[in-house]
Amino acid sequence: MLAESVLLGSFIILILLGVPISFGLGISSLLSAFAAGLQPAIIAQRVAAGMQSFPLLAIPLFILAGALMANGGVAKRMVDLAYVIVGPLPGGLAIVNCIDSMFFGGVSGSAVADVSSTGPMIIPMMVEKGYDKDFAVALTVASASQGIIIPPSHNMVIYAMVAGGVSVGRLFLAGYIPGMLLGIALAIACYFIALKRNYPCEKRPPLKESLRIILDGILALLCAAIIIVGIAAGIFTATEASAVAVLYAAFLGFFIFKELKLKDLWPIFMDSVKTTSVVFFLIGCASAFGWMMTYLQIPLAVMNFFLSLTNNRFLILLLVDVLLLLLGMVMDVAPLIVIVTPVLLPVVKAAGMSEITFGIVLMLNLGIGLTTPPVGASLFTGCMIGKTTIEKASKAMLPLWPAMLAVLFLVTYVPWFTEFLPNLFY
């Protein structure tokens, strides 16, 4: 019990002291190894082994592809395309916000990138049209959660690695229906909010301009189509698909939309390298932490604890969802994936949930966590862009969270939504 107490207790203390999560994971793993009588070199080996995985090569390339698209005019085309499709509906601009996040999530793979790219455009547009600023910020933050669910998502690649080699292609396909369900649920909520608050409809652009916007939007969306079709058809792996995404994003930015310049590449490369370094160091330290948990048989103890509470499958899955929602409120996505997957995957498998479905349920839970205080990265980013406070934005989120939770529980208890497309293509 000493090693287990040292592992979990030191990690909690370090986080409360404000130590970065990566260092907290590494330090607590090292202290626990000493307590268990293990050689400290084994922790260094586990950190290195955690980063030496071929599928992880997709992460820096997907990050770079998302950065190229964010700076190459793709976000603007997504907003314009959504404007043409749903603008004339009641509360059209709010629904545009939901749909453009659905589109952009399919090419960026990041909720924070979605907020950072579409937020500076859509939030001022909504405020100018008479929408409450806090609601505009809250909706942008909520809809951006689709970014980690709709492929390509580098967080899914992390989960596939931690879960023991789950097919990235199957995970990508499994994310489409839940991601679109989330966007549709938020759009329905916006429709009724717009009727209640008398938000305006929008006028669709003239036919010639609309056709140009649709063409540009299709060109942008082709990136996601190429990736998914290529992986599902066995043309290339997820890692090779990420390289294709980079080339296509650069092609769009330089030659089609012409919003990327050579001088833009160096800052984009540097930001991508910084993000990748943080993610990989986190993966390495979390891998050592996860190995220590497995060595100390903590996942087995957690599974036995859940099963001792109840044998009811629905209650077990509900408890897992509640636990993930609470954890998502205080920790970021990547470390949580690496920490909770080896602990909770045996629990949900014992309750009859597949690795694929759990991966999407995990993403949904953590996506909702990105919208909640006190540590919601998307919420922080949206408040900074919209120049409002977390308290006001969180209050404006209240009518949106029920729609997100409804999708979460639907996907948790009805596996068809996650397993239909993978079974169809594979």
What does this structure look like?
The protein has a domain at 46-281 and 378-425. It has helices spanning 2-16, 21-36, 41-51, 58-71, 74-86, 92-108, 111-128, 133-143, 154-162, 168-197, 207-232, 238-256, 262-295, 298-309, 313-328, 333-350, 355-369, 377-386, 390-397, 401-413, 416-425. It is mostly helical and 426 residues long. It contains 21 helices and no strands. The model has no long low-confidence stretch (mean pLDDT 83).
Give a short summary of the structure.
This protein has 426 residues and is mainly alpha-helical. 79% of the residues lie in helices and 0% in strands. The chain has helices at 2-16, 21-36, 41-51, 58-71, 74-86, 92-108, 111-128, 133-143, 154-162, 168-197, 207-232, 238-256, 262-295, 298-309, 313-328, 333-350, 355-369, 377-386, 390-397, 401-413, 416-425.
Keywords for this structure?
426 residues; 79% helix; globular
